[in-house]
């Protein structure tokens, strides 16, 4: 993609306004928190204190809208506490430009590295720096700075108390994640009716697993509807694929295929009903005709062989889903104590340790996170120094814009830069125009600021341009409470916002962190994870009695994580104005298809794992050994742009086929499909190397 095309696409993305599901009660609750803290500060304090308190409650409210599995009150308290600390330190350093620039450099460097922990940490940390840049400009003493910091923290306390006292759809994020996972499996079942090779995106299952990780206290309070369904959805998915697959399931046409289509449609109906009940906290209402289909028929078309085994397994699992809606899923220990099953989530010490490990892993020059941190530090400090030298005042607006615009990837940085400027222009013109025409006092300005906050909370997910407009108007009304000159606010904010956005976008172009050169590494990681998943499954066929309970499951989770990492990288690279010298887009798509097929084949085999008392398979052991031997060299070949060699795997498969004769089992048929996928991968990457072309645009 050329630079002109990339800029056009990012501009279109930044200016897009989408229809999104709003949460009016949550938005009203957050706006009430801002209104309460402003009102108390105006009544008991001064307009300047009201501004600081409002920023604290505003930031805490934004933090609670982020997609996080942590309890919302803790997010509000953490955001407000971090903002209070950063604001107090900023006040102490603001008296001298040199000390403030040094403090700003350290703070933005830490903010950039916080993206290593996760997107929620990165967004909340970015918000802290942005708000700190505004609040430290309010005149005060050291003792007054402490008061400002305490008021900011009080804003977070107020938001947290409102969440506790007026809960709106508690466990709503977890309910949505679990319902999305069940709905995704239901949609997969319906698509398999028409396309037995239909792909499945495991992201909803990954989100549901993340949402299911709980602390012991959360596990005790978890609603009954959130127990047990995720594991059932995980087990149903491979059974659906094996039932619909024409190689290991029913034939492509005929009475058996018609029976399979009926089972798939009924399964989709049942899972949709359960998903709807979980999302809205209502009893499960399953249509009786769907349940009648999910019975072993006494007459009519019947299935045979592996398809029959898959159908019986599916009927049993769907029955478990229906039963789970009536009774809690529990596990009774040997001592007779009832223990609820849940994924453990680390507490505060464990979370801090995990965050430090994540930051340590990204502390290398090739890391996009470290490059983002360095870029953010340089842009914020240079923007502050440059805007200080300009005769516009409000020197914090340029670094504030740069901090809010810059992201670790190219597309978000450029799309947010354009949206930020146009949204800011609209917000300050509307807000400044109202202030100029009406000349509101402190209390009317506070009311207008709260209305802007309410609008932003309601429209938070519609687009960054809308959010920027609401925030800009909010800042104008908020600064008019202590009597800020509106004309200077409009002129300075528009000019310095443009300056900050241009500095941020120029910094990414000068010091980029392109994802495109990492595509082969992502492919290699995905191949290695898929290979580990495959060898774990074939080991289970080879030695059923020695199978470890978590061996296949852990390998599956690693394969999903590698696939998700590839898809994120590929999506980012698709929007970047660079090309990969050794991997064309056509080859990348072909390689992705091959690895997706490989994962699907192994998943089909997982649905037919033998029982522990089944006979061992020497042929499966030989195939697993050949695959395990060939994988390290193949992974290295993908990274180094070398041809892939699967000769040892071919020879093992041929030996297996000769010994099986005309009675191939499920494992052998899966091994053949797996070999075809590996050959497709070798062909895709080999063709890319042979047809290497000189790119028209910049390359990495």
TrEMBL record:
Subcellular location: Cell membrane
Isomerase found in the keyword field: no
Domain Integral membrane bound transporter: 384-506
Keyword terms of this UniProt record: Cell membrane, Membrane, Transmembrane, Transmembrane helix
Membrane spanning stretches: 74-94, 100-117, 149-168, 417-438, 466-487, 494-511
Region entry Disordered, spans: 679-700
Protein name, entry field: Membrane protein YccC
Species the sequence originates in: Streptomyces demainii
């Amino acid at each position: 993609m050329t630079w002109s095309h990339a800029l056009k696409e990012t501009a279109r993305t930044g200016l897009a306004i989408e229809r999104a599901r709003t949460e009016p009660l949550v938005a009203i609750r957050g706006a009430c928190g801002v209104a309460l803290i402003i009102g108390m500060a105006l009544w008991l304090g001064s307009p300047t204190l009201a501004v600081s308190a409002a920023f604290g409650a505003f930031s805490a409210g934004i933090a609670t809208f982020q997609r996080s599995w942590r309890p919302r009150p803790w997010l509000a308290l953490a955001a407000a506490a971090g903002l209070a600390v950063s604001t107090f330190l900023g006040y102490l350093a603001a008296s001298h430009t040199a000390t403030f620039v040094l403090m700003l450099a350290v703070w933005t460097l830490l903010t950039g590295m916080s993206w290593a922990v996760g997107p929620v940490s990165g967004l909340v940390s970015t918000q802290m720096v942005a708000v700190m840049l505004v609040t430290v400009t309010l005149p005060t003493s050291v003792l007054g700075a402490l008061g400002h910091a305490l008021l900011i923290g009080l804003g977070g306390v107020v938001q947290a108390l409102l969440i506790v006292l007026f809960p709106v759809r508690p466990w709503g994020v977890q309910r949505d994640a679990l319902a999305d996972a069940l709905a995704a499996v239901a949609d997969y079942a319906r698509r398999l009716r028409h396309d037995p090779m239909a792909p499945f995106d495991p992201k909803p299952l990954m989100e549901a697993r993340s949402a299911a990780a709980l602390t012991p206290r959360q596990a005790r309070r978890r609603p009954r509807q959130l127990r047990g369904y995720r594991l059932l959805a995980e087990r149903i998915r491979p059974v659906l694929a094996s039932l619909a697959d024409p190689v290991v399931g029913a034939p492509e046409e005929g009475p058996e295929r018609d029976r399979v289509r009926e089972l798939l449609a009924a399964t989709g109906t049942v899972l949709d009903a359960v998903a709807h009940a979980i999302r809205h906290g209502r009893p499960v209402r399953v249509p009786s005709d769907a349940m009648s289909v999910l019975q072993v028929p006494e007459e009519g078309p019947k299935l045979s062989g592996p398809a029959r085994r898959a159908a019986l397994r599916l009927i049993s699992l769907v029955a478990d889903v229906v039963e789970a809606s009536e009774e809690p899923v529990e596990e009774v220990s040997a001592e007779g104590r009832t223990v609820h099953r849940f994924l453990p989530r680390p507490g505060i010490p464990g979370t801090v340790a995990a965050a430090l490990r994540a930051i340590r892993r990204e502390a290398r020059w090739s890391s996009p996170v470290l490059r983002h941190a360095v870029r953010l530090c340089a842009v914020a400090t240079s923007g502050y120094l440059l805007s200080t030298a300009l005769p516009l005042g409000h020197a914090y607006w340029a670094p504030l814009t740069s901090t809010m615009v810059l992201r670790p990837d190219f597309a978000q940085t450029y799309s947010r830069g354009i949206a930020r400027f146009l949204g800011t222009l609209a917000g300050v013109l509307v807000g400044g125009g109202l202030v100029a025409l009406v000349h509101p006092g402190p209390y009317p300005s506070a009311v207008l600021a709260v209305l802007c906050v309410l609008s932003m909370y309601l429209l938070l997910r519609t687009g960054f341009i809308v959010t920027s407009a609401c925030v800009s108007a909010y800042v104008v009304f908020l600064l008019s409470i202590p009597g800020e000159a509106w004309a200077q606010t409009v002129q300075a904010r528009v000019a310095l916002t443009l300056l900050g956005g241009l500095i941020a976008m120029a910094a990414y172009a000068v010091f980029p962190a392109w994802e495109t050169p990492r595509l082969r590494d992502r492919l290699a990681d995905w191949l290695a994870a898929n290979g580990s998943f495959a060898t774990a499954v074939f080991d289970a066929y080879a030695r059923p009695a020695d199978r470890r309970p978590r061996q296949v499951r852990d390998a599956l989770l690693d394969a999903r994580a590698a696939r998700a990492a590839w898809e994120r990288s590929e999506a980012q690279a698709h929007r970047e104005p660079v090309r990969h010298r050794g991997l064309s887009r056509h080859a990348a798509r072909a390689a992705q298809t091959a690895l997706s097929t490989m994962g699907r084949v192994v998943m089909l085999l997982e649905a037919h794992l033998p029982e522990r008392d089944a006979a061992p398979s020497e042929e499966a052991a030989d195939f697993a050994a050949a695959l395990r031997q060939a994988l390290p060299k193949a992974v290295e070949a993908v990274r180094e742009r070398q041809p892939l060699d699967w000769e040892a795997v071919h020879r093992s498969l041929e030996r297996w086929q000769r010994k099986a004769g005309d009675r191939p089992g499920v494992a052998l048929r899966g091994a053949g499909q797996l070999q075809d996928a590996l050959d497709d991968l070798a062909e895709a990457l080999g063709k890319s190397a042979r047809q290497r072309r000189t790119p028209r645009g910049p390359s990495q």
